[in-house]
């Protein structure tokens, strides 16, 4: 049974993770050409489409996390997202010197965020996908059972 303190810690962590994905998601659209150049530099396939998908995933997922909706599913989705980003954009093995170290640092930082997402997914309620409760928060669905 979660204590009030552990619940406050989970809510704080969930909101900070939401912010971590929301701001870069918005920036993907606000600075589209800059992000597109980065993706081209790393030879990401179909960069325009991938950038739009990434931006939408960041923004929608962040809003779902912030509003406590489908947290487990979103956290696991972001885990997959981070694995893809790490191997497509933080490919330190393809670079040398300072750039390789920078990409390695980002790769490892993302593993820490991935770990936090796994903890959040593990601490979040499992919920069946149902059209009747699709817009309800996780806490309201959990209290109905």
Tell me what you see in this structure.
The protein is mostly helical and 145 residues long. The radius of gyration is 17 Å and the shape is elongated. It has helices spanning 4-30, 32-41, 47-66, 71-89, 97-123, 138-144. The longest helix has 27 residues, at 4-30.
Précis, in short:
Helix content is 76%, strand content 0%.
Query: How many strands?
Result: 0
Beta content comes to: under 5%
The global form is: elongated
Structural class: mainly alpha
Average pLDDT taken over every residue: 90
Notable features of this structure?
145 residues
Helix and strand topology:
Blueprint: H1 4-30, H2 32-41, H3 47-66, H4 71-89, H5 97-123, H6 138-144
Helix pairs in contact: 1-3, 1-5, 3-4, 4-5
């Amino acid at each position: 049974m979660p204590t009030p303190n552990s619940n406050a810690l989970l809510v704080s962590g969930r909101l900070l993770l939401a912010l971590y994905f929301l701001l870069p998601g918005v920036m993907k659209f606000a600075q589209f050409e800059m992000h597109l150049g980065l993706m081209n530099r790393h030879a990401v396939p179909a960069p325009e489409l991938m950038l739009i998908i990434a931006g939408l995933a960041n923004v929608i997922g962040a809003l779902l996390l912030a509003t406590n909706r489908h947290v487990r599913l979103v956290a696991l989705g972001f885990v997959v997202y981070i694995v893809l980003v790490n191997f497509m954009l933080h490919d330190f093995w393809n670079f040398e010197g300072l750039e390789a170290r920078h990409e390695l640092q980002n790769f490892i930082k993302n593993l820490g965020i991935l770990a936090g997402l796994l903890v959040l997914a593990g601490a979040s309620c499992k919920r069946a996908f149902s059209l009747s409760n699709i817009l309800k928060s996780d806490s309201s669905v959990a209290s109905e059972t």
